[in-house]
Design a protein that fits this description.
By secondary structure, this protein is an all-alpha fold. The chain has 6 helices and no strands. It has a single domain, classed as lambda repressor-like DNA-binding domains (434 Repressor (Amino-terminal Domain), Orthogonal Bundle). The longest helix has 15 residues. The chain is globular, with a radius of gyration of 16 Å.
Length: 107
């Protein structure tokens, strides 16, 4: 008997704003561009990709493409999606001890 494998869909488990925020925060803390794009895409799907696309000022198809794991969204798209999801992007200076820790992890 063949084993049936069902694709995992994270959107089924991200049904609260808190769980969505945790995913987005984790993605940004990782510094991995692919993970950030993917996390925003997962949250956008959980909230309704068509509405997020409209609110961000891009087409739904372009949003799917740019927020895939292999996507590389333009900064304007990233800012628009973040705003559509209720977030704003900010920059925080990394102190020297954080920078050294990041270098050790990537070595």
């Amino acid at each position: 008997m063949a084993l049936e494998i069902i694709p995992f869909d994270a959107t089924e488990f991200l049904d609260t704003e808190e769980s969505q925020t945790h995913l987005i925060e984790d993605a940004f803390e990782s510094g991995d561009a692919g993970y950030i794009a993917h996390a925003l895409g997962v949250v956008a799907k959980a909230r309704g990709m068509s509405q997020v696309a409209r609110d961000a000022g891009v087409t739904r198809e372009a949003l799917y493409k740019s927020l895939s794991e292999k996507g590389d969204p333009k900064l304007s798209t990233l800012i628009g999606v973040a705003a559509a999801l209720g977030y704003k992007l900010t920059a925080t200076r990394v102190d020297d001890s954080d920078a050294r820790e990041d270098e050790r992890r990537s070595a």
